[in-house]
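quick one, 243 residues, struct below
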Amino acid sequence: MSVTQRPIALIVGAGDHLGSAIARRFAVEGFHIVATRRRGNLDSLVSDVQALGSEATPFYSDARDEEQVTTLINEVETELGPISVAVFNVGGNVQYSVTETTTQVYRKVWEMCALAGFLVGREVAKKMLLRNKGTIIFTGASASLRGNSGFSAFAGGKHALRALAQSMSRELGPKGIHIAHVIVDGLIENEATKQFLPDLFASKGKDGIIQPNDLAEVYWQLHSQPKTAWTFEQDVRPYAEQW
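---
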């Protein structure tokens, strides 16, 4: 790795759909993309970013592991440059009745949604506070606001992530760091969702599904806001989605 002259966007949880769409959106604006995921292939995303005329550095890192997160942030800041924006986009959605939810499942989901968000947010904030500027955006869900039948673990984790973002916003906002939380209140177009919730997915129709590129625009708009009018929380849903 070598120091880049471009601003850096760190995407933690750069999956094949929303995470990659966010990376591409920032790449269009000339950002050097640091894309991370725990497993899976990042070659396609790196190629997409390069085709847009920008640069990308892939990392394979477990956001639930404190040592790995600390190493990731330190390496990026030391070897590439300062992180201008960080997006925490780790999922963790599972569906079990509460009586069938094991301690292992509940803990793992909490680690993915809440603990990982804390670790990434904390380590990035340490660096941004040295400069008194930067943006940290957390991806939430319908479960950030309301629990639903079969989603007790996911709701618990996403509620905790939202609370973390609220606390960070109040603490770090006055110090020049923009903290934002995006509530994704609807299904995002991707194959995993189709397989996980096939009947619900099919019932929404074409325009009832959130398109990743459209949602990625929200992340860019949040980062672009002037300090005099920062938004903390953006609630996003397709027009046909019921409240």
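Residues 22 and 109 are 23 Å apart (CA to CA).
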